[in-house]
Amino acid sequence: MDFINNILDMPILQDILVALDGYLTDGFNFLMGQDLIIKLAMIFGGVIIIFLGTLDLVKRLSKLIFIAFVLFALYFVYTNYLG
What we know:
83 residues
């Protein structure tokens, strides 16, 4: 546990966390300063980007997902057959 505490107390990590907190605060203040239409457009654009990214990820990992599904199905059939 001392190892984790030593890492968390490192000055470089503290500087990174302070900078990240500043960026998040600036972004939040910028978003709250916008009109409702701009906020909705940002949210809608973000949802589209996340949705398209998810579809691309599923497309790239489709073979792995299919293999995992087949293995799970075989396991499910095998355990129910013996039970």
